[in-house]
Amino acid sequence: MTLLRALTSEVLKLRRTFALKLAVLAPMAMVILVAFIVAQSPYSTINAAGRDNAWVIYTNMLLRLWSLLALNLVIILESVLIGGIDQFGGNFKSLLTRPVHRWELYSAKLLVTIALILISSIVILLGLLLSGFLLPLLEKQLIFRRDLPLALILRRWGAVFVLSIPTIAIQHCVTMKSRSFAVASALGFVGFIAGVVINLTPVDALPVWCQYAPWAVPMLPFAKHPTIHLGEIFGLEIIGGLMISAYGIWEFGRKQVL
Amino acid sequence: MIRQGGGPLIQLEEVRKSYGKHVAVRSLNLMVPAGSVYGFLGPNGAGKSTTIRMILGLQRSDRGTLSVFGKDPWRYRNQIYSRVGSLVEAPVFYPNLTGRENLEVHSRLMGLGKTAVDKALDAVTLRIAAGELVAGYSSGMRQRLGIANALLANPELLILDEPTNNLDPAGILDVRELIAELKQRRVTVFLSSHLLAEVEQVASHIGVISQGELKFEGTSEELRQTVDETITVVVDRPEVGTRLLAASGFTTIWEGSCLRVKAGANKAPEIAQLMVSNGLLLSSMTPTVRKLEEYFLEITK
């Protein structure tokens, strides 16, 4: 019950914030950018692999770019904005004297961050579908099949979102622990760069554990590596996310407010 | 020593808190009776805010015992938070929200309705500006909103850290009246300040802290007596001396190794005889007449 109270309180704090706008604008910008590129060069991208799988290629293209370039950045910014609004703003000295358990405050902030990333992911999904229908109207050479492979799109989209949760958990934990905006952001950017490098490096050149790096896993649904077992990674990442959150809650519970 | 009022609502015994090598609070003993307005006085950097943070369970003491409503505030935070309202140092708000919305953030956390927000806003006469964004508030308005936030849950214990900072004279008067009203309602107020005049006007009990140690604790009346004509007596066993003097009708305040006896210089022979005849080793006796400010400055040096 008090978790619900903490949640409604966190939602109220989002009013007129950049965090809320970012959740919608960042994925919209990504969709517009990708759709623009596709519209400009229809033969070199979508239709190059054959007309029958334009939807699949377009889905992969958009979700890969989203998970590789934008998703981790959005997670860093949202985590720092949601957690940092109290952590770096000095609000904990009044918030933490309210009769709500600290684990509930921590969890409410984490849930709001996950909800914002979900909103971003939904905008990407809707943008993907809308732009997929609009592109052939704008560019006659582009041919998207009428029978939309919705199940495949939802599966890949869902996998990207679920695999981003451990990164959210890590980023949230660091934001709530560190007293500096710079530390929380720096860790995120290092992770982001590591994720990009891992995904752009040939699989044979990397040790196996790299495929489990939290910042790299949202790209895994599009990988063709024979050693990757998506189900196994799903399980490991979820357990990892829960363990990190449990540690974050424990740390937050003994946090001394200066 | 406090001898008036109800049972202790806040009690600190031998509390210490340090940050690395810097000792912010050392061996602090403090007792706030229920229903009192306790003025917690001390210069900047004396350890007032650290003490308040420990009382509120925001920080953990290195050693010693703290109790608020009879419970350790660090271990049983949530049990005391529903009964406490606080304003710690300069109030911080969400600039993207209005004054009312800022209070709603807290009222939602506590499961309170909009009536509680309205009542708190009325208490600090901020209802008219409640719909404006806090980003546009003056520092005085923010201070009022901070007090409203502390009052939100109708607390039994109100902890105010420098509440009149940034307030104009009218605002200071409002806070004073508010505290007087709370006192009538038997709300215990713990008021921290570095301004003697501010505390003296509203407090029923006063504690003076300096360099992390309590230099004086007593009722306002006792403080006034202290600063009138007194004789400072130094004996080898001050606890015995206090008892003897009290039995002979003297008001005595025990300050470290000294006994401050409320008496004119003409009573010095009588006091000396009392000490010596009961086997105490009398080191010195010094009659003094001091003003309140002088006393405050002296003990907070």
Structure explained in plain terms:
The complex is a heterodimer of chains A (258) and B (301). Chain A is mostly helical. Chain A has one domain. Chain A is 71% helix and 0% strand. Chain A is built from eight helices and no strands. In chain A, helix 6 runs parallel beside helix 8 (230-253). With 301 residues, chain B is of the alpha/beta class. Chain B folds into two domains: 8-220, P-loop containing nucleotide triphosphate hydrolases (Rossmann fold, 3-Layer(aba) Sandwich), CATH 3.40.50; 228-299, Alpha-Beta Plaits, CATH 3.30.70.980. Chain B is built from eleven helices and 13 strands. Chain B has helices spanning 48-55, 77-81, 99-110, 114-123, 139-151, 169-184, 196-202, 220-227, 238-247, 268-277, 292-299, and strands spanning 8-19, 22-33, 37-41, 63-68, 84-87, 157-161, 188-193, 205-210, 213-219, 229-235, 252-255, 258-262, 282-289. In chain B, strand 6 (157-161), helix 6 (169-184) and strand 7 (188-193) form a beta-alpha-beta unit. In chain B, helix 4 (114-123) crosses helix 5 (139-151). Chain B is elongated and about 70 Å long.
Task: Please supply descriptive tags for the structure shown above.
heterodimer; A: 258 residues; mainly alpha; B: 301 residues; Rossmann fold; six-stranded mixed β-sheet; four-stranded antiparallel β-sheet; 13 strands; elongated; disordered N terminus
* Average pLDDT level of chain A: 88
The count of β-strands of chain B is 13
Low-confidence stretches of chain B: 1-5
Q: Determine the oligomeric state from the structure.
A: heterodimer
Radius of gyration of chain A: 20 Å
End-to-end separation of chain B in angstroms reads: 21 Å
Helix vs. strand class of chain B: alpha/beta
Structural class based on helices, strands and sheet pairing of chain A = mainly alpha
Largest interface: A-B, 29 and 31 residues
Beta-strand content of chain A: under 5%
What is the chain-wise order of helices and strands of chain A? HHHHHHHH
Number of domains of chain B: 2
Query: Which CATH class of the largest domain in chain B?
Result: Alpha Beta
Number of separate structural domains of chain A: 1
Overall geometric form of chain A: globular
Tally of individual helices of chain A: 8
